[in-house]
Write a structure and sequence with these properties.
Blueprint lengths: L2 H4 L10 H11 L13 E3 L29 E49 L2 E40 L10 E4 L5 E2 L5 E5 L7 H12 L11
Antiparallel strand pairs: 1-2, 2-3, 2-4, 3-6, 4-5
C-alpha cells in the first residue's frame, strides 16, 4: 500500500508532513510489538467498496464486551481540518472525511458511506473516504486525519487534538467535555480527558470553577 493512496493524494510528493507523521505513528513500528500484532498484512478489496466492517481484536461475537476502566463521560468534537488520537474505551460516533485508523481495537466497528478499506494487518485497520463510523469497545488508538469531523465519544480515556485554522468557521475546532465549557483545538496540539474527573489536574480545575461560581477568582499563588 502506498501512503499517497491512503490519503487520496495524486502524487507521493504531495503528501504533507502531518500525513506522514499520522501514517508512521499508526501503521509503523509493528516489528517492535510482534506478539500483540497480527503476523500478516493485506491490502483491502478494490475501489468502491462500502458497507459495514466488524473488527475482531480479539475475536468477538459482534458485541463490545469489555471491562470498564472507570466512570464514562462525554466528549464532543468538531473540526474542519485536523487530526486526533483517542486512547481508551467506550463508544465513538463520528462523521468524517479523510483517513481513519484503528490500532489494537477490541470490539465492534461499523464504517459506512463512500469509504474504502485501505489496509488490514499487524493489529491495525485503516479506511479512507467520506462517511460515518460507529466504534464500540476498547482500543489502543483510534486515529483520524482529514476534515469535516463531527464526533461524540461516550467513554473513558485521553484525546490528543490538532486543528488547523479554518477561514469559514474562523476557528480550529471545538471540544466539549461533560458539562465544561467548549475549548478550541490548536495546531500545536491539546490534550483532554474524559470524563472530566479523569484529568490529572481535575482538583485544581474544580477549585477554579467553584471560585468562579462564587464570583471570585482562584489565586495563582501566595501573595508577595
Amino acid at each position: 500500500m502506498h501512503a499517497n493512496r491512503l490519503f487520496g493524494l495524486g502524487r507521493p510528493a504531495a503528501m504533507s508532513a502531518a500525513a506522514v507523521i499520522w501514517l508512521v505513528a499508526g501503521c509503523g513500528g509493528a516489528q517492535n510489538d510482534p506478539e500483540s500484532d497480527e503476523a500478516g498484512a493485506t491490502n483491502a478489496a478494490g475501489p468502491g467498496d462500502t458497507g459495514e466492517s466488524t473488527v475482531f481484536y480479539p475475536q468477538s461475537d459482534g458485541t463490545a464486551d469489555y471491562e470498564s476502566s472507570g466512570k464514562h463521560g462525554v466528549m464532543r468534537l468538531e473540526c474542519a481540518i485536523g487530526s486526533f488520537i483517542l486512547e481508551g474505551e467506550g463508544r465513538v460516533e463520528m462523521t468524517f472525511r479523510g483517513g481513519l485508523l484503528l490500532h489494537n481495537f477490541q470490539g465492534t466497528a461499523k464504517v459506512t458511506g463512500d469509504v474504502r478499506e485501505e489496509f488490514q494487518g499487524m493489529g491495525r485497520r485503516a479506511w479512507f473516504g467520506t462517511g460515518k463510523a460507529v466504534l464500540e469497545g476498547k482500543w489502543r488508538k483510534v486515529q483520524w486525519f482529514g476534515g469535516d469531523l463531527k464526533a461524540v465519544w461516550y467513554g473513558w480515556g485521553y484525546a490528543n487534538l490538532f486543528g488547523e485554522y479554518d477561514p469559514v468557521t474562523k476557528g480550529s475546532g471545538i471540544v466539549k467535555i461533560d458539562d465544561l465549557d467548549e475549548k478550541p483545538w490548536y495546531t500545536t496540539g491539546t490534550q483532554h480527558y474524559v470524563p472530566k474527573e479523569h484529568d490529572p489536574a481535575w482538583e485544581h480545575i474544580k477549585k477554579q470553577l467553584e471560585a468562579e461560581a462564587a464570583g471570585g477568582s482562584q489565586p495563582s499563588g501566595p501573595a508577595g
